[in-house]
């Protein structure tokens, strides 16, 4: 008989250890492992970690088999693993109803349970009796299921199970926005059952999603139906959120040792090697002790100071746990494995040696890992005084099966029995390896032959949508509907993936569906209901954003391919040339570089071999040969929310029966549900893409309206507007030039109050007479005003009786007007009508969630509370819009602008998160206010004009202005005039200011209009007695004044416009520092490390008072300096100050106070009144300037705060700088507490 090799003997030793510490506890029926002899429940996370050693040992035996017995041993071990994984699968499949509900609710009451009965797989505690929502546990199961399947284990046995796993993918793909209880089951560290977003959960979910993508769960014996599919955009959401959080673990935990599992084995979820190292060092520096690592700072679990009779902590109690947190050897096992994977053998030996000293020796010399080491109760005071000096005692489970398993796995790897690739067959360990450069393939398509000819004239050769056949082009939302079928299973009542917008990573692949190749246009092309897509510059901006995002986030095999269609709306007003912005973009794309991305343009057919392609096998025919079985047919009701026009080409051009196959019929089925049925007769002009048709599916009687009209006016955007209702522009010119309809100031809003509000005999507004006035309205603005009046008085569904009975409804007429205004690009009016119609902002809730997921709280409305509303958790779309409306005080334009700004902020945080550094709360109301004041400053105009100009900015200019505000870059404003709707209006555009102080167009000699045209327009302006379009403020004010007395004014006192009024005069001069403070104050921007310094100040006083609101020193007993929760708490006190520049001076005052922290001073007072210090500084400044000869006008004080306006505009440094006076005032304020020789005043 062959003698046993030394390696075989060593393996047998580990096999005995595994048997005694892990496998002997495995349930014979379910395969589950209890947590310990005392805790008989089976935790999902503990079970998966505990079985890893068994899996690793099985792999080691398979590789190092000396004898047949070893091969048998390998099989036995592997089947133990399979049994446990299937046992957990059974537990979860019994809760399939929760999986289905959670996909839509992300609620703690709908989540899978965290632990089950070891013997029956049943639940053991109620839904609300435990912190069940632990995304990392479910994600860890899926990650290891993928790794084990890839290693050759067969765990999944049926297609029903495949569908369940696919739905678990949908369950965890929202982890980036789901607050859970985390790996320690406690949520917020106060242990009061408060969920929070955890880096450990987001990272594990990201790893699981990547591991399962395109994985065949049947292994080598599988087929297309057993492949799991993951949407790449969800993975990248997790990646960006994780990157923004680390090294912070959550809002209440500035560092957590559990993140080791995310930055290293098993997740390897972070791609930035520098961030991995920073996070690891943060954990080692702050949490490591002599017996392992603490879980997190001020962790009270099993400490002598914890009250075991209470399941929660008092906030101030957390300070008691500082420096006596229990230390867990478990984390050294993670660091051993991390050292093996990173090739750092010195680290491996260091931690193996450290572990040898603290493991407990059991019978037969077996080394057991205790759960934790705690400070003995009688040594607590000594440990407080000298941390990490007291000898600790082991407590808790012995062994901690999870830690024991990782220890054995680390030893097997360290001794060479296992190679890293064997327990990581999916190669996750290479996450930090630099990826090759991405070249984005862009295929430009023309909507029609006419557009193709226009582009050819410009030297750009493209194909039409019809030319690319048999490749089919579809809008993004069709792909969303196709993916909604993924994972459906009638037996288990699983409905598949919830309908969500498709991200750019998803639309940049080519798809094989039933032997047909499909390409999908980006989501922004599909913007049906909101006005952003009316702006060609905005479309270009969104394309630039998507290209940049693709370059940085693309990780798949093959290159990304964007299909970019050119439609009629991208031509200029004549329809004979491409819009200059679009043309410039097309030329840049052809040059090969755009928006920081490398580009290759070409035909779709040329990209087939180099593109990333995915086969959507779930769309293949079932047993009956149909695309979908009857049980999976889509109900009409499921598409009722899609109230916008879709466009489609493939089904119309393939008219022969051979090509019009089942896929086309299925997509046609989808489109019949997503295309509103038009009540207008077809016309000779085909609309093609018709991307911007407004939602007319609710119009019931437009047919009668059209039949009465002798003529149809075909709009470029595809909406048919009867010209009999809205008079031609020539008539408007005559009416506008009539002097009796204009006042000398050029404001025509008095017309409404005097002429357009007819009264009946009872004194009420005569609505029928208003309808009559609608027929002869000279301007679009007046038509909108009248329709708004009718909307308020009669409601949107009131039949006007216009030209017929019952006639079109108010809503139908507003919709028609919206399209007409869209053609004229009067943005203020577009926003106004959008607000009246409550047009749904595409992906508003997703934009809000994106900002919140990056740990930014949002506020809408202007300060103070309760008008300013805070959003700190994702909320449904309807509730979000209601909150914004309420905060905007029913001001339609401000409400819609708030939603628009939220979308732009989400774009920037996705592509340029650095802009939001040290900003924990984004105050959208103040940002809008600052945008208007900046315009007032740049244009030297009044507050009213600034508001009007802001509302008239195009979406692209609005986004550009927002960027310059939050980035702090200087910008210039170009102002020209243009003729719109029979009047002359100012055209404002935002430009970057170059190094020489001029805007780029000025330096290049490019101006918007030729000087001759400007002169002619100026003459025309004078002939029209200075006409301007109605400002929104005046129009709305006059409209509302004529309504019932109970209706509040839309732009009343203290609202958006009036808050500007007091500032416009100050803005007329060059107040650079005042502007800078206003911007920083509005953006809540503070110096780096500010909140940590505030924490130190609070330790030396009883609290800081800001305008009567106190930040107590007890806060430091609850929160640590680096906690985001602490920063948000400080912000909430500072945000009580409504004036941004005053708030910023208070921040500077606190900053000076922090300089005292490093002095040898025990205390600096009781409650420090920060504003009092500022006012002392202000008085010092005033007296000194007065003595130097400044007059009262120069030293004018702000009536709201009493601060000299000149102080607001003083630089921080220098002889007359704010810091000079603040330092003196701090010294005066805290003089009694300073040491005699502590400091001297300069």
TrEMBL record:
It comes from Patagioenas fasciata monilis. Although the final Cys may be farnesylated, the terminal tripeptide is probably not removed, and the C-terminus is not methylated. GO terms for molecular function: calmodulin binding; kinase activity. Belongs to the phosphorylase b kinase regulatory chain family. This is Phosphorylase b kinase regulatory subunit. Keywords: Calmodulin-binding, Carbohydrate metabolism, Cell membrane, Glycogen metabolism, Kinase, Lipoprotein, Membrane, Phosphoprotein, Prenylation, Transferase. It comes from the Eukaryota. Gene3D superfamilies: 1.50.10.10. Residues 1055-1074 are annotated as: Disordered. Residues 1063-1188 form the Phosphorylase b kinase regulatory subunit alpha/beta C-terminal domain. It is a lipid-anchor. One of its GO terms (biological process) is glycogen metabolic process. Transmembrane segments: none annotated. It holds the Pfam family Glyco_hydro_15. Pathway: Glycan biosynthesis; glycogen metabolism. A lipid is attached at residue 1239 (S-farnesyl cysteine). The keyword Cell membrane applies. The keyword Thylakoid does not apply. PANTHER family: PHOSPHORYLASE B KINASE REGULATORY SUBUNIT (PTHR10749), PHOSPHORYLASE B KINASE REGULATORY SUBUNIT ALPHA, SKELETAL MUSCLE ISOFORM (PTHR10749:SF4). Its main location: membrane. Phosphorylase b kinase catalyzes the phosphorylation of serine in certain substrates, including troponin I. The alpha chain may bind calmodulin.
């Amino acid at each position: 008989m062959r003698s046993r090799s030394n390696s075989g003997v060593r393996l047998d030793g580990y096999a005995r250890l595994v048997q005694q510490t892990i496998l002997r506890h495995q349930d014979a029926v379910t395969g589950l492992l209890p947590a310990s002899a005392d805790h008989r429940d089976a935790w999902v996370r503990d079970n998966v970690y505990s079985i890893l050693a068994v899996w690793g040992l099985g792999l080691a035996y398979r590789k190092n088999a000396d004898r047949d017995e070893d091969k048998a041993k390998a099989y036995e071990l592997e089947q133990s693993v399979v049994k446990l994984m299937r046992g957990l699968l059974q537990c979860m499949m019994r809760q399939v109803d929760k999986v289905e509900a959670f996909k839509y609710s992300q609620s703690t009451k709908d989540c899978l349970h965290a632990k089950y009965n070891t013997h029956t797989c049943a639940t053991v505690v109620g839904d609300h009796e435990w912190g069940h929502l632990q995304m990392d546990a479910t994600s860890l199961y899926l990650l290891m299921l993928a790794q084990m399947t890839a290693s050759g284990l067969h765990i999944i046995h049926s297609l029903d199970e495949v569908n369940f796993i696919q739905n678990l993918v949908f369950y965890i793909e929202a982890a980036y926005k789901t607050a859970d209880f985390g790996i320690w089951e406690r949520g917020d560290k106060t242990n009061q059952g408060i969920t929070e977003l955890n880096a450990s959960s987001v990272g594990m979910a990201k790893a699981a999603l990547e591991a399962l993508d395109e994985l065949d769960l049947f292994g080598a014996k599988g087929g297309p139906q057993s492949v799991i599919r993951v949407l790449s955009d969800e993975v990248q959401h997790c990646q960006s959120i994780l990157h923004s959080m680390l090294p912070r673990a959550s809002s209440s935990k500035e560092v957590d040792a559990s993140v080791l599992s995310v930055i290293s084995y098993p997740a390897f979820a972070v791609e930035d090697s520098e961030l991995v190292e920073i996070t690891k060092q943060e954990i080692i520096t702050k949490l490591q002790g002599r017996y392992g690592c603490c879980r997190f700072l001020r962790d009270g679990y099993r400490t002598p100071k914890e009250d075991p009779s209470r399941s929660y902590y008092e906030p101030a109690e957390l300070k008691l746990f500082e420096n006596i947190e229990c230390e867990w050897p478990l984390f050294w096992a993670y660091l051993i494995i991390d050292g093996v994977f990173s090739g750092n053998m010195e680290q491996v030996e260091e931690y193996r040696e450290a572990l040898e000293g603290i493991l407990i020796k059991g019978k037969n010399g077996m080394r057991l890992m205790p759960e934790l080491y705690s400070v003995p109760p009688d040594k607590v005071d000594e440990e407080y005084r000298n941390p990490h000096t007291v000898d600790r005692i082991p407590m808790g489970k012995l062994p901690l099966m999870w830690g024991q398993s990782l220890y054995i796995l680390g030893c097997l790897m360290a001794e060479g029995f296992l190679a890293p690739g064997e327990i990581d067959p999916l190669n996750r360990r290479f996450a930090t390896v630099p990826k090759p450069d991405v070249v984005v393939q862009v295929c430009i398509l023309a909507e029609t032959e006419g557009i193709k000819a226009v582009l050819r004239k410009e030297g750009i050769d493209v194909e039409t949508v019809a030319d690319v056949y048999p490749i089919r082009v579809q809008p993004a939302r069709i792909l969303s509907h196709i993916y909604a079928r993924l994972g459906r299973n009638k037996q288990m009542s699983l409905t598949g993936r919830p309908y969500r917008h498709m991200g750019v990573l998803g639309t940049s692949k080519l798809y094989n569906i039933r032997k047909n190749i499909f390409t999908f246009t980006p989501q922004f092309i599909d913007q049906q209901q909101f006005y952003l897509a009316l702006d060609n510059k905005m479309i270009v901006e969104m394309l630039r954003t998507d290209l940049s995002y693709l370059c940085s986030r693309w990780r798949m095999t093959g290159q990304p391919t964007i299909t970019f269609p050119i439609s009629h709306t991208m031509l200029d007003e004549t329809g004979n040339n491409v819009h200059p912005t679009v043309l410039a973009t097309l030329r840049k794309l052809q040059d090969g570089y755009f928006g920081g991305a490398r580009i290759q343009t070409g035909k779709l057919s040329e990209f087939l071999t180099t593109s990333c392609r995915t086969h959507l096998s779930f769309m293949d025919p079932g047993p009956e040969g149909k695309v979908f079985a009857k049980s999976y047919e889509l109900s009409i009701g499921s598409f009722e929310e899609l109230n916008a026009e879709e466009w489609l080409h493939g089904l119309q051009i393939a008219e022969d029966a051979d090509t019009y196959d089942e896929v086309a019929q299925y997509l046609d089925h989808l489109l019949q549900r997503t295309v509103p049925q038009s009540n207008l007769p077809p016309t000779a002009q085909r609309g093609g893409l018709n991307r911007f048709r407004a939602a007319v599916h609710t119009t019931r009687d437009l047919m009668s309206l059209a039949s009465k009209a002798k003529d149809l006016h075909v709009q470029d955007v595809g909406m048919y507007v009867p010209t009999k209702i809205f008079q031609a522009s020539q008539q408007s010119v005559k009416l506008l030039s009539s002097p009796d309809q204009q006042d000398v100031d050029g404001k025509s809003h008095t017309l409404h109050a005097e002429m357009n509000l007819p009264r009946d005999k009872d004194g009420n507004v005569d609505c029928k007479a208003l309808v009559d006035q609608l027929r002869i309205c000279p301007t679009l603005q007046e038509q909108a005003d009248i329709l708004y009046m009718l909307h308020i008085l009669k409601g949107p569904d009131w039949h006007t009786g216009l030209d017929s009975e019952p006639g079109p409804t108010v809503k139908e007429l507003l919709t028609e007007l919206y399209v007409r205004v869209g053609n004229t690009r009067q943005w203020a009016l577009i926003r106004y009508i959008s607000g009246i119609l409550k047009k749904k902002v595409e992906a508003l809730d997703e934009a809000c969630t994106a900002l919140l997921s990056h740990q930014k709280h949002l506020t809408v409305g202007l300060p103070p509370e309760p008008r300013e509303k805070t959003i700190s958790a994702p909320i449904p779309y309807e509730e979000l819009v209601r909150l914004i409306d309420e905060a905007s005080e029913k001001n339609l334009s401000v409400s819609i602008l708030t939603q628009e700004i939220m979308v732009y902020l989400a774009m920037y945080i996705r592509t340029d998160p650095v802009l939001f550094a040290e900003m924990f709360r984004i105050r959208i109301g103040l940002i809008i206010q600052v945008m208007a004041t900046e315009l007032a400053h740049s244009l030297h105009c009044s507050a009213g004009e600034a508001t009007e100009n802001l509302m008239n900015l195009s979406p692209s200019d609005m986004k550009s202005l927002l960027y310059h505000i939050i980035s702090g870059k200087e910008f210039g404003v170009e102002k020209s005039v243009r003729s719109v709707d029979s009047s002359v209006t100012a055209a404002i555009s935002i430009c970057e200011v170059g190094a020489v102080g001029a805007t780029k167009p000025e330096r290049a000699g490019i101006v918007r209009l030729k000087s001759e045209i400007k002169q002619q327009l100026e003459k025309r302006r004078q002939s029209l007695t200075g006409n301007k379009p109605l400002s929104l403020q005046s129009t709305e004010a006059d409209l509302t004044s004529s309504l019932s007395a109970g209706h509040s004014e839309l732009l009343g006192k203290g609202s958006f416009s009036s808050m500007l009024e007091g500032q416009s005069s100050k803005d007329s001069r060059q107040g650079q520092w005042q502007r800078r403070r206003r911007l920083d104050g509005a953006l809540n921007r503070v110096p780096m490390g500010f909140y940590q310094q505030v924490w130190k100040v609070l330790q030396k006083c009883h609290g800081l008072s800001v305008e009567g609101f106190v930040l107590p020193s007890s806060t430091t007993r609850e929160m640590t300096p680096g906690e985001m929760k602490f920063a948000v708490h400080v912000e909430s006190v500072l945000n009580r100050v409504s004036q941004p520049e005053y708030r910023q001076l208070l921040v500077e005052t606190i900053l000076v106070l922090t300089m005292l922290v490093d002095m040898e001073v025990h205390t600096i007072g009781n409650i420090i009144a920060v504003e009092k210090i500022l006012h002392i500084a202000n008085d010092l400044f005033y007296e000194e300037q007065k003595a130097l000869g400044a007059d009262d006008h120069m030293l004018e004080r702000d009536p709201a705060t009493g601060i000299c306006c000149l102080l607001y505009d003083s630089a921080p440094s220098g002889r007359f700088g704010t810091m000079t006076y603040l330092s003196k005032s701090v010294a005066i304020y805290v003089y009694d507490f300073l040491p005699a020789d502590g400091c001297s005043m300069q």
